Amino acid sequence: MSSNLDIGGLLAALLNSDVESFRAPDANRGLESVSVSTALNRSRVREQNNSNATPRNPTKKAIVLQSVAGSPTNASPEEKTNWLGAANSILSKFGATPTQKEVFSATAFSNFPEYYVWVLPDNAENVGNVPTFNETAYVVNPERFTKCTLNNALIIDDLLAGACVRIDYENRKLRTGAYVVNIINNSVDFSNAVIQELGGMPCAGANASDVSAEHANGDVIGTEADNFNSEEVIYINNDAIYPYTEGMTSAELIVYYHGIETGRNIKQRQNTILGVLKENKDKLSGKIFLIPAGHDKSYSSIGDTLSKLKSEKSVDTEAAQPKLGFWSGGALGGKTALKIETFAKVEIADPSPESAAIPSDIQPDSDNINMVYNKANWSAESWYPAGIESYISALSGSSATITEVTYSHPDIMTGSIERLLK
Questions:
Q1: Is residue 324 part of a domain?
Q2: Residues 65 and 38 grouped into a single domain
Q3: How far is residue 384's CA from residue 402's CA, in Å, rounded to a whole number?
Q4: From residue 205, how far is each of 114, 218, 263, 264, 369 by CA, in Å?
Q5: How many domains does the chain contain in total?
Q6: Is the separation of the CB atoms in 422 and 232 below 8 Å?
Q7: Is the pTM of this model over 0.85?
Q8: pLDDT at 200
Q9: Alpha-carbon gap, residue 115 to 179, rounded angstroms
Q10: Does residue 246 share a domain with residue 191?
């Protein structure tokens, strides 16, 4: 992380002011004749008002760096916990109407999205710590910056990495409890311009977690991400389900988290996995793949997708124990799955061993875990050697089979899918 940056261009125009201005005393034009005692009393009142006045603009401008792993999104605020469901059941006992419960759920005040943000400095001479991109598409050590909550129900868009927001603090004196007040600019062009000025590689149309997440060399593969097309893929809660055919009633479930492919949106990343599945169509009989909408989507939210698959499409996936696979940055979502479910088989394909993705509290009896990795695929990432050792250590108590290979990053993913199909 750098502590010295020559800020210019767009960022220079965004700097916060050195001094927070206070409310000006009332105008005093057309003075009336008053006694000395009255004048002194008014002066004391003005002085007291000035000392108690809050700054006219005590908020700060900040640049969004990335979403906090595990925090919910605006599209699914209940993803992180089942607290709202429990609370709603309590409301029912007190005679709450459906409308009241709907309003209560819509607030989702215990499940707000969180982002790491860089609070812009007050001037160009005293910059302090600034984000480091090292000419890549992701920021280094984002957890060292301010964690900020998006608790404004009127803001419905996910924030882009590089977006400019105005923040405030629950405790302004201690600068704790940061939250977003409003969005200044969340456009793709603006966000990419900010990232470029900070020495990073912009990702057109990517969201905050997309831009700042680590990924290996060669994530982008083939052209399936751009032109995949099949009548047998359906989407529920934006999760891709394949292959689905009219009239099917049951299937063996395989959940597979996609990786992070620079410059591609979530659907294109799902398509990369779908392309491999399409090539192995002859092995998919009796099976159905669910590719979550996001490499870091919480596994707990997938239950709703499966419930709708059963209620709306009459497909039951509960007859057999599910299987799990995840590739590259999908290790973030995979971690949430290993924490709450025991799988018949788990395939970990060249995972991104960032700190937030290191497995913890793996379910007991998880002895069917197979991990394949290649250090050479991550040679450009200085943090990787220590990260992969931590990742391997975290799996040591699960009887996992861990194999280092020389295959490319995409080939490791393809191999993991083929093993899940056996």
A1: yes
A2: no
A3: 17
A4: 20, 20, 7, 8, 35
A5: 3
A6: no
A7: no
A8: 64
A9: 9
A10: no
Q: For residue 82, tell me if it sits in a domain.
A: no
Element (H, E) at 253: strand 252-257
Beta bridge partners of 255: 290, 324
Helix 83-93 vs helix 98-107: crossing angle, to nearest 10: 150
Q: pLDDT value at position 79?
A: 39
* Residue ranges of the chain whose pLDDT lies below 50: 1-7, 19-30, 54-55, 74-83, 108-110, 204-215, 218-223
Q: Name the residue type at position 10.
A: L
- Separation between Cα atoms, residue 89 and residue 196, nearest integer Å: 49
What is the residue range of 44's domain? 27-56
CA 252/CA 181 separation, integer angstroms:
46
Provide the pLDDT for residue 257.
Answer: 97
User: Residue 329 in contact with residue 214, Cβ under 8 Å?
Assistant: yes
Q: Which CATH number covers residue 358? A: 3.40.50.1820
> Helix (H, G, I), strand (E, B), or coil: what is residue 255?
strand
Comparing C-alpha atoms, which of 178, 183, 65 is closest to residue 132? 65
Separation between Cα atoms, residue 372 and residue 392, nearest integer Å: 11
Residues in Cβ contact with 18 at an 8 Å cutoff, skipping those fewer than 6 apart: 122, 123
Q: In a 3-state reduction of DSSP, which class is residue 213?
A: coil
Closest to 290 measured CA to CA, from 312, 315, 265: 315
How high is the pLDDT of residue 301?
Answer: 92
Helix H or strand E segment including 14:
helix 9-14
CB 251, CB 317: distance < 8 Å = yes
Contacts (Cβ under 8 Å, ≥6 apart) of 125:
none
Judgement on whether residues 370 and 229 belong to the same structural domain of the protein: yes
Provide the pLDDT for residue 403.
95
Predicted confidence at residue 417, as pLDDT, reads 96
User: Tens of pLDDT along 246-290?
Assistant: 999 999 999 999 998 766 788 888 999 999 999 999 999 999 999
Instruction: Write the CA distances from 153 to 5, 70, 216, 359, integer angstroms.
Output: 35, 19, 36, 32
Does 416 fall in a domain?
Answer: yes
Q: What is the pLDDT of residue 204?
A: 41
**What is the per-residue burial (b if ≥16 Cβ within 10 Å, else e) of 300-337?**
bbbeebbeebeeebebebeeeebbbbbbbbbbbbbbbb
With the CA atoms of 157, 302, 211 and 73 taken in that order, what torsion angle do they form, in degrees rounded to the nearest 10?
30
